[in-house]
Amino acid sequence: MLITGKAELEKYSAPYRLWQGIPAIEVTKGGRQFLAFYSGGVSEGIGNYAMLFRADDGKEFGDTPMLVAYQEGYRCYDPCLWIDPLNRLWFIWSCAPEHSVWASICKDPDGPKMKFGKPFKIGTGVMMNKPIVLSTGEWMFPIAVWKKEPRSLGIQSTVPENERKAFVYKTIDQGKTFVKIGGADVTHRTLDEHMLLEMKDEYLNMYVRTSYGIGVAHSYDRGKTWTHGTDSGIKSPSSRFFIRRLKSGRILLINHKDTNERDNLTAMLSEDEGVTWKYSLLLDERASVSYPDAVEAEDGYIHIVYDRERGSFSNSLYEVYSSAREVLMAKITEDDIIRGVVQDKGSYLKRVVSKLEQYALEDRNPFHEITRLSESELIKSLLDKTGDEVLTALFECYQVNCMNMHKVDNTKLDSLIEKLDSEPENKEKHILRIIDLIRSVDDASVQDVPIIEKVKSIIQENITEDLTVDYIAERVGISRYYMLHLFKKTTGLTITDYKNELKITKAKNLLIHTEKRIAEIAYECGFGSASYFSKIFFEVESISPSEYRTLLKINK
């Protein structure tokens, strides 16, 4: 699955790529930069491959990758780069049609002879954004099973619809084993591309790509249970975004600011846990700039990578050559964002790190003549085709892909596709309806969910006290039964479960950050006895508190 030979890698160099995009970035302690993105074929589908590049000088990545993830008959895509707490570099990619996430690890990414380990499977679904490490030591990987795959990709999952969510996988043994612990279903989510963020009071937020912007779900038990996601209030053109907490404690968001298009790519900072975004720096105002990834390096610089005019889903070489087909980088500081202008001597914007020129194999004509037909000629040519053949042609001609498929009414589309074969006498009419549907937009409504922050605040402030439900309800001023109902509906947890999760979270921090005895930690966290604490802890983590302490301290 991994290609490393120099002669083979030449086949994936810039002259042999029609298009490219969806990048990832990482920077080692020694300052070595790694870049990944994917390409392959004329569009996003079977035949795609993920590539890894490196720049020792922080500038030049070259045209030829150092590593390629490729498998005949498969799609290798959505690469992700991550340096874990052990300073190992993870090269992660998704694979279809088996719908799985794979990784290979380099133990010494700053070394003169880099060597990646044997690829291994992390989980089922799609992952493109970096994992996070919680304050309690767990590593969390965001892996999604899409609500519905875009038909334009030609790859359909067999996972039942009720098992499709934006999931979280957890590992506490340095990535040796993974457990899928929970997932969120967010209103009108599309291709998910979710990111995780630990908030200051140690609950988790999951931010998810939707048809109306960025949705958010909350977990109060370290990712096992998630609220039904709703609108975060952050506007976005249904595209990948980046959100991460910086070393300063501020939250960094890279997104398309105040627009429904893929332009005005902007870096923003929040000092109030994402309620407002006080500071911003415009990274690239141009159209078709998208899919940012970023990393905060050891020296404090923020390295950002994104693509511009990928060139995929074109109908001809003329259209391909009319696209920029660039991967770009920005290097900025927090002060640059606060000032709203680049002033640091080491900062820069819009640096092109990979650009495609003439295609070396253009004489082989990778595009089909059907894309040059007029609409009436196209429909006439499709009347003797099967439903699947009609659909493939229409998606190719009308450029339906992962960037706009979320706007199509999938239920109605499926119905019309079935009628193509079942009602051959009305095929022309159904084809016209499919074309109209592809051109249409499904206006998504946004739902609001009440959050009883006061109840959580009372519990958090009195975590060591055994507060009764009646006492909390009296403090809040509502019926106890309504409060219990509302709390479970909002958080997905009972109040007792929520209290235990807060206590366990506090206990985890004490276990790995202090030398206090188990009994001391039990009483400090509000458990009646060390034995009861150990019992609850084992039910949550499947290991004892002492084993958890030993394991996580080793991992640190």
Description:
By secondary structure, the protein is an alpha+beta fold. It folds into three domains: 2-362, Neuraminidase (6 Propeller); 369-439, no CATH class; 453-555, Arc Repressor Mutant, subunit A (Orthogonal Bundle). 25% of the residues lie in helices and 28% in strands. The protein contains 14 helices and 25 strands. The protein has helices spanning 6-9, 317-321, 334-339, 375-382, 387-398, 410-422, 427-439, 453-461, 469-476, 480-491, 495-513, 518-524, 530-541, 545-555; strands at residues 2-3, 21-27, 33-39, 49-55, 67-69, 75-83, 89-96, 100-106, 120-124, 132-133, 139-144, 166-171, 179-184, 189-198, 204-210, 214-219, 230-234, 242-245, 251-256, 265-270, 279-284, 289-296, 302-308, 326-332, 348-355. It has a five-stranded antiparallel β-sheet, with no helix packed on it. Strands 6-7-8-9 form a four-stranded antiparallel β-sheet, with no helix packed on it. A hairpin with an 8-residue loop joins strand 19 and strand 20 (265-270). Helix 5 (387-398) crosses helix 6 (410-422), helix 6 (410-422) packs antiparallel against helix 7 and helix 8 crosses helix 9. The longest helix is centred in the last third of the chain and has 19 residues, at 495-513. The chain is globular, with a radius of gyration of 25 Å. It starts with a strand and ends with a helix.
According to CATH, the fold-level topology of the largest domain is Neuraminidase
Helix content: 25-40%
| Average residue-wise pLDDT | 87
Number of helices: 14
The CATH level-2 architecture of the largest domain is identified as 6 Propeller
Helix-and-strand structural type: alpha+beta
Uncertain stretches of 5 or more adjacent residues:
402-406, 441-450
| β-strand amount | 25-35%
